[in-house]
Amino acid sequence: MAAPSEGDTASLLPDLPGGPLQAYRARASFCWKELALFLEGEDMLRLKKSIFSALEDDPLFARSRGHELSLEKHRELTFLRCKRVLGRALLRVEDMVQNPLSVLTLITCLGTYDWSLAQKFLLHLLVFGLAIYKSGSERHLEYLPKILNMEIFGCFAVTEVSHGSNAKAIRTTAHYDPATEEFILHSPDFEAAKFWVGNMGKTATHAVVFAQLYTPGGRCHGLHSFLVQIRNPKTLLPMPGVMVGDIGKKLGLNGVDNGFAMFHKVRIPRQALLNQTGDVTPEGTYVTPFKAELGREIHALVSGSKPLASWTAQRGIQECREACGGHGYLAVNRLGDLRNENDPNCTYEGDNNVLLQQTSGYLLGLLELRLQGGARLESPLGTVDFLEAYPDILDQRFSCPSVAGCLESSVPLAAYEWLVCYLLRESVQKVNQEKRSGISDFEARNNSQVYRCRSLALAFLELTVVRTFHEYVHQPSVPPPLRAVLRRLSALYALWSLNQHTALLYRGGYFSGEQAGKMIEDAILALCAQGSPWRFAGVARHTDFVSQQLKDDAVALVDVIAPPDFILDSPIGRADGELYKNLWTAVLQEGQVLERASWWAEFSASKTHVESLKSRL
Amino acid sequence: MAAPSEGDTASLLPDLPGGPLQAYRARASFCWKELALFLEGEDMLRLKKSIFSALEDDPLFARSRGHELSLEKHRELTFLRCKRVLGRALLRVEDMVQNPLSVLTLITCLGTYDWSLAQKFLLHLLVFGLAIYKSGSERHLEYLPKILNMEIFGCFAVTEVSHGSNAKAIRTTAHYDPATEEFILHSPDFEAAKFWVGNMGKTATHAVVFAQLYTPGGRCHGLHSFLVQIRNPKTLLPMPGVMVGDIGKKLGLNGVDNGFAMFHKVRIPRQALLNQTGDVTPEGTYVTPFKAELGREIHALVSGSKPLASWTAQRGIQECREACGGHGYLAVNRLGDLRNENDPNCTYEGDNNVLLQQTSGYLLGLLELRLQGGARLESPLGTVDFLEAYPDILDQRFSCPSVAGCLESSVPLAAYEWLVCYLLRESVQKVNQEKRSGISDFEARNNSQVYRCRSLALAFLELTVVRTFHEYVHQPSVPPPLRAVLRRLSALYALWSLNQHTALLYRGGYFSGEQAGKMIEDAILALCAQGSPWRFAGVARHTDFVSQQLKDDAVALVDVIAPPDFILDSPIGRADGELYKNLWTAVLQEGQVLERASWWAEFSASKTHVESLKSRL
């Protein structure tokens, strides 16, 4: 792809304002507009621009700087915005169906504006809506238009107050009564109340509720989902037998009303069962048409991706907040919002440490099968295929003669393959050793998490990311002017990530001698350095690759991914780089900045009198 | 010290409530009351109890659960509480003077209740008050009783909007005018406004202001501090020429009113100069009586302690918040408050990374002096004395034959001494290499921070903590029943901390072979394990030391350091361990939990109509 012509991009990617950042932008080795076009494509850029502009142009989405929002007002505003987003149909249903990635773009754009809004929208439309579409059948299709035009509003109720990540332990029950062809939904006690359910606190009229299904005679068929009306859409008052409320303020995401519900023998029709994987006949017989076979590789990847991504983001945001010093701690600059709104990603929809067990379990299972003489080690997406060479990889050793040689992601990629094999062997040994001591398999697995299975899962995911990144930047379609910067980024991510595992690389013998570890560190520093004058010790001066490094590209790279100023809404982060001017403007717009305190008279009222101090001092 | 008799401790350390934690408490290897008495001493326990009880008994300190505080109300409440604390004289002036540690106890107790209150109190009484006492002279003593009875309220104004940790770059000026015997205090522009000053936003009547002192003829004598009245104590209105305001909401600590001020040629008397280190005669001659020689070792230790402590706390709080899952994310449980109120410790009073340079600079300077043939390497507190054996230590190698041998803090202590020597050598080499490339000393030092000087400073501080902990738990005065648990804690901290540096231990050759690194990990796991039945692989079963490990002591250890329930104010953290019951009680006390939303009518109002969806679905 050639560098974009002015006509193509002028409206999609307008020039950035001048100011103090201009000098830094001028140092970039590439054109930021070309990279944005290459990464996103024109269609996505257009979609993003249309969403961002729709938000900026609508007063309902005006930023409420200078006003404190009460919890009630915050929730009202987020609800109204969610309604407006659905009403404006920012993305047409046909486009969603044709290109599911566009839904992700919509959610991400809404989230970049405000993650409460994105969550509320996502929980209603996708989590609730898709649960009905995917887990229900023909008889549930009538609900979909009602979801789209918000005749009903949904939530997804799995978690209970004392059971989060452990879905099997859920205690809400649904007993089938053939006499009336109804299920009787019941919460046995307060600990089994549904809790933390997003949208349930104040707005949801319907819930997909997970409960243990019982047929007459008392047989339990395990966890199933039911579509349950919890409020009257006309009045928003609870339905009889449903105690539903709001769990209160959270560390962030306070536009979303997380709620709780207890069901007191609530009768729902037989058809309320979302019967994709199992159904109950009118007479009360449980029938299951087929087993839903999961994509195990995708499950393993997803279960590791969320921990890796949420922890990396949390660490990165905290680093940025500290790097901005006090100004990063000022609420108006919104690094606190970013941190508090990413934080729950570490625990919801499965605690990170619990999820990582899914990933390591998958890898351990594959190896066990193979060692028992199973088929060739391979998977649909190919992420585990390298394990076929497991014993050979373990014999490999680090062989990079110079720092300059380490500036390519192929070096850390090879190290990662060894690392995953090493951790796999260590994990297998540990689990077996634990099992031999006579404890249960569950306990043996638990005792093998720290330093073994948990590290294995993370390293496997990092390898997958490093490999995907490496392949992406080496594909022939990358425009030549963008190759150098993308390859440097790929190498930096890979080396920085790998460097967290240097201890294991030494311990297992992949690294030996002082130079191996130093080279990785020096390569990281070289990649972060300024390009010219090039004086980084230990690296050849004249190779083209190292003549310009990432420090010079930093501002332009941010330009590629940064949302518009209105969306980012951070005075110190505006594109013009005039951080102090913008900070002052923002501070002076807050309420009562220069006014004396309303309670000023308290200052001199009834002065304290400490016993005759003067004499003593 | 014998185990405390019932009479001694019944009132100071009442029994804890029964409940689900009782079974865990019964497993402890020691008596929690005995440890509390040993750690704190009876006097401190009594002081803490009197402070905590005073807060709990006074309705002004009632917890405001279920009510959202506006910024204005939060600040008013914190001010009133601060006034009450001073008025109640929880600690007598004589006691503060006799035992300065008691002041720390008071601040810590107030902070455990609410760090906004502690900060407000600390900034006024100690930071502002001590600045006048220490930097002023006889002529300023008249202010001290006014501070104690709050006739005036103080703040400490160093930071400017564009200069935080770099105090030398401050641009506020104080020109002396001999005609009127006044200084003219001036802020040249908005970037030089004082900013972030705690208590300045709404309450301070006086400020200690740092400015560049100029005498007639234009000579600058550097940074000096001046006592400046910024508001009228009767009206809290600003003094003429002072623009003073509130910088707005922060990520936490919102009971403290951080503020800004610009001075427009404000005239203050000559005597307002805090003249301990330099004065100006009525005619305008600058005179300096002596140089304030700083305790360099203490400075180096303090500059490294704050980073180590604040980062460790931040990491620990985040770990606890995640370990509590969603409930840790619920505001009422207050892990968010802990995190947000610790967060600024990472950057204020000197950014952590900047401060660490003070510590590494001290060590590099000492070594340079020694290598130039200077005197023996030693310091008043002895923290660097081991460096005298620098070359010999570098020749040492890890020599611990078994995991059981690693369960003592002497093993990591020896490794730390090697590590600091290694990082010192690496840092010196790096700085010299940078200097040889022809850049300035400042740049050379900057370029040597990552992986070298920064790691050195942290490792040195960790070594100091590990050594202090080790010596503390091995002193003969430790009651025999407490020895085992304290030594295990010391070993766990040391090994856990050291384990972050395993890569360097291998790289520099202190560790070799697979076993060294594994032993450290296994020792950490063994120390965290449950005592009985003892089945941790690789560790002898019958030694007394390992027969009971820290998992069994965990709850009792928390009992030793935990503040009373009222002070902690966290439903999931109450001493009775009834977390779900307490959580429900708290959630149901919040405002409008079960009421429908006040904006319920918006739900059905003007329904959105997405174009004829039904046909398509």
TrEMBL record, chains A, B:
Its cofactor is FAD. Pathway: Lipid metabolism. Keywords: FAD, Flavoprotein, Oxidoreductase. Residues 291-364 form the Acyl-CoA oxidase C-alpha1 domain. Residues 411-530, 546-604 form the Acyl-CoA oxidase C-terminal domain. It comes from the Eukaryota. Residues 155-264 form the Acyl-CoA oxidase/dehydrogenase middle domain. SUPFAM superfamilies: Acyl-CoA dehydrogenase C-terminal domain-like, Acyl-CoA dehydrogenase NM domain-like. Signal peptide: none annotated. Pfam families: ACOX, ACOX_C_alpha1, Acyl-CoA_dh_M. Belongs to the acyl-CoA oxidase family. This is Acyl-coenzyme A oxidase. It comes from Acinonyx jubatus. The gene is ACOX3.
